[in-house]
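sry for the spam today, last one i promise. struct tokens for design, 280 residues
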């Protein structure tokens, strides 16, 4: 009888299976890391919805500079933000295809930060609308590639991945709303009865919150860059050349198949039948 220690073919098969298992574990960890990075990105996306609920403080600040501003101007902010977010979610698919995940996220993050910075400097409704357009566009550019890339790593569990990522958006919205209220109106001072707006000093604290969002957005991009792996780059260095990892996987599978086709037990059985034929 043959033992694994004395049978080089079975020993080689075990080594191949071990290498194959390690390779698949490595791919799983890369996918898991990517999903974690996408969760952080989607957590950031939640801030745009909280910003739309806190923009009443921005209106209160502007009104002290331009008396024609009223609470009714809030109606402009959210529809404009949603329109550009949805439009650039569509456009980001093309950008992602041409430039890749990390470059697309960089463009989206810069656009988002620029939008926050313009509102930070703004003292008029016009510049506020420009900032909302840029912030919505940045969120739209970030959302699509991060979500689809995470889903592609676990194509058999798309529903679960999307559910987790959408939950992170909700958690982000809750978190940023709480932080925003704490920074801007920690004392819970009520708005004016006549115009539903706040004092200038309270509205001015909106600029502190915007500064926080700028710093937070930059940190999220750095973290996501470290954690997220573009699945398109995992299979190909370019459109025609396979990476070394894929070649290793194919080679291991081929060697494992060849080893199975030359099982020493089958050889021993054939040899025994051959000897029995002589006895007969």
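last one done:
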């Amino acid at each position: 009888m043959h033992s694994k220690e004395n049978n080089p073919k079975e020993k080689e098969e075990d080594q191949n299976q071990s290498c194959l298992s390690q390779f698949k574990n490595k791919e799983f960890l890369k996918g898991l890391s990517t999903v974690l990075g996408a969760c952080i990105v989607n957590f950031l996306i939640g801030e745009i919805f909280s910003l739309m609920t806190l923009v009443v403080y921005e209106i209160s600040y502007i009104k002290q500079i331009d008396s024609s501003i009223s609470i009714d101007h809030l109606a402009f902010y959210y529809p404009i933000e949603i329109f550009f977010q949805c439009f650039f979610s569509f456009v980001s698919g093309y950008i992602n295809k041409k430039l890749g995940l990390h470059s697309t996220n960089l463009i989206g993050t810069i656009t988002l930060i620029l939008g926050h910075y313009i509102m930070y400097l703004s003292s008029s409704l016009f510049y506020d609308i420009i900032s909302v357009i840029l912030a919505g566009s940045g969120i739209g550019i970030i959302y699509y590639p991060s979500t689809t890339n995470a889903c592609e790593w676990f194509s058999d569990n798309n529903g679960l991945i999307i559910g987790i990522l959408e939950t992170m958006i909700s958690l982000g919205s809750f978190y940023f709303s709480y932080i925003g209220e704490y920074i801007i109106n920690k004392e819970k001072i009520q708005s004016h009865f006549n115009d539903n707006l706040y004092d200038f000093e309270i509205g001015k604290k909106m600029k502190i919150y915007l500064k926080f969002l700028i710093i937070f957005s930059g940190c999220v991009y750095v973290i996501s860059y470290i954690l997220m792996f573009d699945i398109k780059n995992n299979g190909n260095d370019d459109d025609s050349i396979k990476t070394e990892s894929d070649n290793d996987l194919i080679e291991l599978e081929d060697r494992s198949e060849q080893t199975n086709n030359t099982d020493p037990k089958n050889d021993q059985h054939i040899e025994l039948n051959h000897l029995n034929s002589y006895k007969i």
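Residues 241-279 form one domain. ok im logging off now
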